[in-house]
Task: inverse folding
């Protein structure tokens, strides 16, 4: 079965509203061409978001937000103008189009080209069985409240915060070329943070799980065990030591693999950053940058990831092979960067919402699995570290240099091929290209994750993404303790 559903059948009230929006966008596009635009597109978006926050067994907040509006982009003699509005009256839509045209005509010298792309008409929805928007607030609050209460496993737990989130995002794209894509993505999830304190030392462990699914995902998991396990890890970690600083063999879990790839390598493969010379991957197509074990892809629809079949320029997001057997094969592109490189658009023109222009962004960016069992990854390591994600708190990268530093979660020392004591405050750092070259074994597992609680930031825009990969073994990585 494909990981999507095709919208069909009798029209609902919402679908009738969507038909009205299509008519409005048709009018806008026709007027844009009649007013001199060589190309025009329009995007209608409607998004529902909810966030429930429980702090220390008490409902702290319940917020609900609806966002809807239209964005219009026009190209006149190579200059691009953009305008958006949340006022969908006919008069205001005409004014928005006029503002986009005025913006394009005011631009001097800056020209952008739209590389040709396949003209597609499609309607797709991420699969859901229970619409989370229709679930009662009482049921959602009770689930989050019970999960929070379950986190109080010991008097060593001093604070516990639980959040339940949902997002339902509908996007309609139409262009003067005849493209029409209609995509609805629903996502739900739960985030929890436990803080433990022992002998004056505190440790906090955050973790979350989300899925592009309906409320059936929330019903399918034991969230009480989820939060209590986080608390137990916080208690274990607070009594642990930091690892001895040094350079060791490291086994990295799938989520940290995904974070490393996304932040330190994925951004560097974005065509707009490559074009401006800001990327460590500039002029490296065809060059072997990683070990022969490494293959990296960016894909729009993948189990566990963010559901993204089409980008915000109407281009289908198929699988793009970035690195194949260690060799850099492709960058990712929107229609403009594809034109600059003489390449095909890869479906990576993404906008945070209708108020923003699409820019080059990753979708689901991950490493392909290999053929090793986990036991095989650690069995020949005399001394090293098993780096784990649960409890990780982020880090920083330098795309132009390819450097990274990440604070990962409580991890384990590897001694003589066995996992031993837990260590806390673990920091990993290095050069991403050197790290990729020293990968000598890849697990056969594959885990891809997304999040309803945030996403990737770039140029002031945040979009949800998917990250992941298999377990990997890196021959040497710098490890420290904070």
Result:
């Amino acid at each position: 079965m494909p990981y999507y559903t095709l919208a069909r059948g009798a029209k609902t009230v919402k679908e009738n509203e969507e038909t009205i929006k299509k008519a409005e966008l048709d009018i806008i596009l026709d007027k844009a061409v009649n007013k001199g635009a060589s190309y025009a597109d329009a995007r209608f978006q409607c998004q529902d978001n909810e966030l429930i926050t429980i702090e220390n067994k008490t409902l702290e907040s319940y917020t609900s937000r609806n966002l809807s509006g239209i964005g219009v982009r026009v190209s006149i003699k190579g200059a691009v103008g953009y305008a958006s509005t949340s006022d969908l009256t006919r008069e205001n839509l005409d004014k928005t189009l006029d503002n986009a045209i005025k913006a394009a005509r005011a631009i001097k010298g800056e020209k952008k080209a739209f590389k040709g792309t396949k003209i597609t008409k499609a309607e797709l929805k991420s699969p859901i069985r229970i619409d989370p928007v229709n679930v009662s607030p009482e049921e959602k609050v009770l689930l989050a409240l019970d999960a929070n209460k379950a986190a109080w496993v010991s008097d060593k737990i001093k604070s516990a915060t639980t959040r339940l989130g949902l997002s339902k995002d509908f996007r309609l794209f139409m262009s003067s070329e005849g493209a029409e894509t209609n995509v609805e993505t629903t996502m739900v999830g739960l985030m929890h943070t436990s803080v433990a304190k022992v002998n004056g030392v505190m440790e906090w462990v955050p973790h979350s799980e989300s899925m592009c699914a309906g409320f059936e995902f929330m019903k399918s998991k034991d969230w009480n065990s989820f939060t209590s396990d986080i608390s137990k890890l916080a208690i274990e970690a607070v009594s642990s030591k930091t690892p001895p600083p040094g350079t060791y063999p490291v086994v990295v879990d799938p989520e940290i693999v995904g974070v490393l790839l996304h932040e330190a390598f994925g951004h560097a493969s974005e065509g707009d950053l490559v074009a401006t010379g800001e990327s460590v991957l500039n002029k490296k197509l065809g060059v072997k940058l990683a070990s022969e074990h490494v293959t990296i892809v960016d894909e729009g629809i993948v189990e566990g990831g963010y559901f993204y079949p089409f980008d915000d320029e109407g281009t289908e997001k198929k699988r793009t092979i970035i690195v194949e057997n260690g060799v850099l094969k492709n960058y990712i592109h929107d229609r403009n960067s594809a034109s600059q490189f003489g390449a095909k658009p890869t479906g990576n023109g993404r906008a945070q919402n209708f108020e923003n222009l699409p820019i080059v962004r990753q979708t689901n960016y991950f490493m392909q699995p290999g053929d090793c069992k986990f036991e095989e990854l650690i069995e020949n390591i005399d001394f090293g570290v098993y780096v784990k994600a649960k409890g990780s708190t982020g880090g920083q990268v330098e795309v132009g240099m390819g450097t990274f530093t990440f604070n990962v979660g409580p991890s384990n020392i590897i001694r003589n091929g066995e996992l031993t004591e837990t260590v806390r405050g673990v920091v990993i750092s290095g050069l991403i290209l050197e790290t990729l070259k020293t990968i000598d074994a890849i697990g056969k597992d594959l885990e891809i994750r997304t999040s309803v609680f945030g996403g990737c930031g770039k140029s002031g825009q945040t979009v949800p993404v998917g990250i992941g990969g298999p377990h990997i073994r890196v021959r040497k990585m710098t490890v420290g303790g904070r």
In short: Residues 440 and 473 are 6 Å apart (CA to CA). Residues 1-13 have pLDDT under 50 and may be disordered. The longest strand covers residues 58-76. The chain is about 25% helix and 40% strand.
